[in-house]
Amino acid sequence: FPMIPHVLAGWLGALAAATVLGAPYRPADDATVLERLPVAAVDPAMTELRQLRARVSADPHNPTLAARLARRYFELAMAEGDPRYIGYGHAALGPWRGDPGAPSPVLVVRALLRQALHGFDGALDDLAAALHQEPDNVEARSWRAAIFMVRANYEHARRECQAMQASASALLTAGCFAHLEATTGGAAQAYERLRAALERRADPPASLRLWTLTRLAEIAWRIGRHEVAERHFREALALGVADNYLLAAYCDFLLEQGRARDVLALITSGTRSDTLLLRLALAERLLGRPEAERHARELETRFTAAARRGERLHLQDEARLMLDLRGDARGALRAALLNWETQREPSDARIVLEAALAARESAAAAPVLAWLERSGFEGRHVRRVATALKALPQ
Question: Can you tell me the distance from the alpha carbon of 11 to that of 263, in angstroms, rounded to the nearest whole number?
Fold first, then answer.
C-alpha cells in the first residue's frame, strides 16, 4: 500500500532545469552538466540507474524499460525528498505524454508522478485506465484509495479497499482499511487490526513493513500511546530503508514531545528536502540555535521561487514556516486554507486549526471544523485545538 504523506507535498516542488530565481537557464549543449546530485559514484543503486538510463536511451519507445526508469526516479524522490527526480521520471515517459492508451506499466508510473505534483485528477484517470487493462492491478487500486484519502473522499477510498480484497495480500488489505478507519473514528480498532495483520505476515517486503510500522506509529501517536508510537518509529528506522516521509513524521512526533535535540541528531543530512529542512529549522529555533534563521530564509527562497514558477506544492510547510518561524498567523492561515482546497489529510487540518487559533479567526476554520465532525477523526491534539478555537469569542 503506497504512502502518500500530505501527499508528497513537502517532497516535490520544482523540476530540474529551472534556476532559483528568474528565467530558466537553457544550456546550449545537451552534454552540459547543470549539477551533480549528492550520490556516491560507487553506489550500486546509481550504477543500476545509469545502466537503465543507457538502455532507455538506446530504446526510448520500449514501455517496459521506460516505466522501470521512471519508477526508479520516483522511488528516489520518495527516499531523498529531492524534487528533481520527478522531472526526470516524466522525461523518461516522454513518448507517452498525454496518451490515455499507454501500456498499463506506463500509466501507473505516470499516475505516481502526476499525483506527486498534485495532478490528482490526471493520476486517478491514469490509474482507472490501468485498471481497465488489468482489473487485478493491486498497485493501481491502492494508489486510488490513497488519493481518495488525501481528498477526504472516504466512501470512494473504502470501495477501493474492498476491491483489493480479492487479489491483494491480507496485510496490504489491512493497511488500506486501517488508513481509512484510523481517520474516521476507529483509530484504536484500526491499530489492533493492523498490528495483528503484521504479526501474521511472516516476512513482508521491507517497503511494506516500513509503511505498516510508520502507519502503526502514527495511529498510536494519534490516540496518545506515545511509548508505542516511539517503538514503531524506531523499528521502521531500523529497517535501514531511506524514506523521507518516515523521517519527517518522526521529527514531528519528537517536536511535539519537546525533543528538539533528537531531531538534530536525526537530520544529519537531507536539507535538499523542504520537509526535513523545515523540521531542522523548527528544532533549531526551539534550541535557540542561530542556524534556524538561515534555514528559514533558505526555505523562503525555495518557496518564493516555486511560486514564481506557478507551483504551490509546499503550502502546508509554508504555513508552518509562517506560523512557527515567522509568527505570521494570518499569512499562515491563508496558506493553510489554500492547501486545504486540494489536500485534506489530518496534518492539513491541524495547521489550519493552529493558524486560525493563533489568528483568533474561528470562522475561517469552519470547513476544517466541519470535516472534523463528519470524519470523527480522533487525534487528541487536533481535537484540543478545535475545542480552544470554538471557545473564542464570536
Answer: 18
Which string of b and e fits 57-89 if b means at least 16 CB within 10 Å?
eeeeeebebbbbbbbbbbbbbbbbbbbbbbbbb
> Nine-digit cell at 251?
521529527
SS3 122: helix
Reduced to 3 states (helix: H, G, I; strand: E, B; else coil), residue 346 is: helix
Which pLDDT value is given to residue 271? 79
Helix axes 104-116, 138-150, angle to 10 degrees: 20
Give the Cα separation of 246 and 11 in Å (integer).
Answer: 12
C-alpha triplet 89, 92, 97: angle, nearest 5°: 95
pLDDT at site 270 = 58
pLDDT mean values, one per 10 residues, the chain (394 residues): 37 27 41 45 76 94 97 91 88 94 97 94 97 96 97 98 94 96 97 97 92 97 97 97 93 97 88 92 97 96 89 90 98 98 96 98 97 96 97 90
DSSP annotation of 379: -
What b-and-e string marks burial along 228-243, b requiring 16 or more CB atoms within 10 Å of the CB?
bbbebbebbbeeeebb
369-375 long-range CB contacts below 8 Å, 24 or more apart? 371/152, 371/344, 375/152, 375/154, 375/183, 375/184, 375/185
Is-contact 247 234, C-beta < 8 A?
no
Helix (H, G, I), strand (E, B) or coil at 75: helix
Question: Is 108 within 8 Å of 138 (Cβ atoms)?
Answer: no
What pLDDT score does 5 carry? 38
Looking at residue 42, what is its pLDDT?
A: 54
Report how far residue 49's alpha carbon sits from residue 73's, in angstroms, rounded to the nearest whole number: 9
- Beta carbons of 336 and 352 less than 8 angstroms apart: yes
- According to the model, what pLDDT value does residue 81 have? 79
Give residue 2's pLDDT.
41
Long-range contacts of 52-58 (CB under 8 A, 24+ apart): 56/92
Q: How far apart are CA 22 and CA 131, in angstroms?
A: 42
Type and span of the H or E element at 219: helix 206-222
pTM: 0.87
What integer pLDDT is reported at residue 272 of this predicted model? Answer: 83
